[in-house]
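Hello again, I could really use a second opinion on something today. For a while now I've been wondering how a particular protein folds. Please have a think about how the structure follows from the sequence. Here's the protein in full, and shout if anything looks odd to you:

***
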Amino acid sequence: MKQTKWTLLMLCGLLIAALTACGQSDGKANKAAGNEAASSGKEPSKSMQDVKIVLDWSPNTNHTGLYVAKEQGFYEEEGLNVDILLPGSGGADAMVASGEVPFGISYQEGVTQGRTQGVPLVSIAAVIQHNTSGFAAPVDRGIKTPKDYEGKTYGGWGSPVEEAILKSIMDQTGADVGKVKFVNMGEADYFTAVKRDIDFAWIFYAWTGIEAELRGEPLDMQYVKDYTDKLDYYTPVIVTNEKTAANDPELVKAFMRATSKGYEYAIEHPEEAADILLKAVPDLDKELVLASQKWLSPKYQDDAARWGEQKREVWQNYSDWMHERGLIEKELDTDKAFTNEFLPE
């Protein structure tokens, strides 16, 4: 039963992760990634080690560093022939935890939920240092603060985390989450849903927010991290499983050396990095990718000493918040949930 519960929660979390690509209703990016368009064109030597990393969702600018590391030959320099895959029906977390693949893209919520139920995931890098998600509404809805959520309709995916976060930030402004109407958005993207039957939704600004700017549809946005430090959690993260970390640490270090170079390149060269992502996934919208990459590149490392660095207090704060609200049944063993030991110095 515990495993079933974790899987259901993980799938809800994957739906939240889908917000990074909710502006893409046609699924073309999935097709492009499935065709492995990210190939560098270089022939791996016979001594190369085949390695797979599975994404959390459709390719987008959260993932640029991976495509850069592949295209620029950083993985090849480490003796790795890396395939970037889309998640299977069980999701990225399940694929990594089972050992089907050694690496994946996840999020702090999923790792926390999984580990408290015995799932052996370990976060080895924060892709972005601070939470760029929040609740967004078209400006004509007059939603300037969480107090304004009262009497409005929220479009979500039925995850218990959604209502818990809304309640958490509304409580701070003396607002009542009970006065919010919750509806399931289904397969509709944000832009369709706000024109149809909702007033606001949870988005990642780096993708959907930037798309709104390009569409000329301005948003009012409340970032969840601005209301409490406990909600400034890592999303997304790169994960491995305990067995890989313990039995093949040199593989993990090599993979992270190359991946770090990929994200560092994207930080320093956002336009060139955007071109690499577009080359890998040509059906993505060029204008959106470039604008998103320029916005997101400085946020990969932000105020951290190095890209990928994770702080214990971030893991502790969010897991405490989840436990206080009954989203996890027991406290997280924080020191086993993440590590910085595989990041290059």
